[in-house]
Design a protein that fits this description.
alpha+beta; 6-stranded antiparallel β-sheet
């Protein structure tokens, strides 16, 4: 049974203080180059007050801390165990019969605490800060939905060419023909609307022009039909909810909101977006675990003979952190394209860390 000893308190305190310093430095380095410059520009160009500028900086903290917690415990553990090694304190502790796993337990416990903080930050604090900034993907101004029949064939297509959450403009509705060909899908009618109004049980398109298409693919008649109702029933709100949520970044969702969004994406067969968001959803549970893995890895990298060079462990740590964050978008892309399942796209980086821990531990013969 684990009992807290004097050396546990000593090591925990050392790791905690070193991690805290690393967190502060990480936040300063992350914010200073770009975010601080943008905030200063807003003071002079948009004439915001100093209080508002400080609030903007505060809103950036949760986004930075989500990445800083794992890095902080990694560098804090390396620094502490490197110092313990150089001062021969690790040799003394091992000389009295303590295993290396037992010595690094306080660092692992701190990693567990940071895992909980990292999970809460990702689930609650980052979405709250992003919503306060009204952060949206303004470049995602188009929306396409294909409604299928019972035979999984295209029935109706809707293309919204100019979309923001506050308005819908330039809408094209396509009625697919019942006749199917091996190499093409034909149209029966095309509808073009200048703008649309979303109601509880339907979408009402205004200023609609109907283009009737012949079997040869050429329109044969144009008619001004005024208003047109589409998406009748519960689908009205659900499709609008999916469309509105598609303008948001994944970090603006809480876990509960993202789970609901995933259900709608799956229900209406937005396959690529569903796979991408599902990968991001799994990352929210796997990413905090890196705090524990980084704590273990930092202890191993920090352990070294008294006369060895200090720079090696820190260099390896920086390389691992860089490799982790730079490969995350790559795995997201693999999930989105269906090359790798979303679960494995989120879990493979964790497996890579476990493999690195095993390899480095064996290499150092700890």
């Amino acid at each position: 049974m684990f009992h807290i000893k004097i050396f546990d308190k000593y090591i925990f305190k050392q790791v905690f203080m070193a991690t805290l310093v690393c967190l502060v430095l990480f936040v300063i380095v992350w914010i200073a180059p770009e975010i601080l410059v943008k905030t200063i520009k807003k003071i002079f160009i948009l004439h915001i007050t100093v209080k508002e500028a400080l609030m903007l900086l505060v809103m950036q903290l949760p986004k930075v801390l989500g990445k800083a917690f794992p890095v902080g415990i990694l560098l804090g553990s390396i620094f502490t165990f490197d110092k313990l090694s150089k001062d021969s304190e690790l040799s003394i502790l091992r000389g009295i019969g303590l295993s290396f796993s037992r010595i690094m337990l306080p660092s692992v416990l701190l990693g567990i605490v940071l895992t909980g903080l990292c999970f809460y930050t990702t689930d609650q604090l980052i979405p709250a800060a992003s919503k306060a900034e009204h952060e949206e993907k303004h470049y995602a101004s188009q929306f396409v939905y294909i409604q299928k029949d019972e035979n999984d064939m295209p029935k109706t297509g809707i293309i919204i060419s100019n979309f923001q959450p506050s308005y819908l403009k330039d809408i094209i509705v396509i009625d697919f023909a019942k006749a199917k060909y091996d190499d093409a899908v034909t149209f029966e009618n095309l509808y073009f609307a200048q703008w649309a109004n979303v109601q509880d049980k339907s979408w009402v398109l205004h200023g609609v022009k109907k283009y009737e298409i012949s079997e040869g693919g050429v329109y044969k008649d144009i008619d001004n039909i005024g208003d047109l109702e589409i998406f009748k029933g519960d689908i009205s709100k659900e499709i609008y909810s999916v469309m509105k949520d598609s303008t948001k970044r994944d970090r603006t969702f809480t876990n509960k909101e993202m789970f609901h969004y995933l259900k709608m994406l799956k229900k209406y067969e937005f396959t690529d977006e569903y796979r991408f968001m599902l990968s991001k959803f799994y990352q929210r549970f796997f990413h905090p675990l890196t705090c524990v893995l980084f704590a273990i890895l930092g202890c191993i990298l920090g352990f070294s003979p008294p006369r060895s060079q200090r720079l090696i462990g820190f260099t390896v740590a920086v390389g691992i952190v860089f490799a982790y964050y730079i490969t995350l978008p790559f795995f997201d892309l693999l999930a989105q394209k269906g090359i790798l399942s979303p679960f494995w796209a989120a879990f493979v980086p964790i497996l890579m860390f476990i493999g690195a821990i095993v390899f480095i531990k064996k290499y150092k013969d700890i």
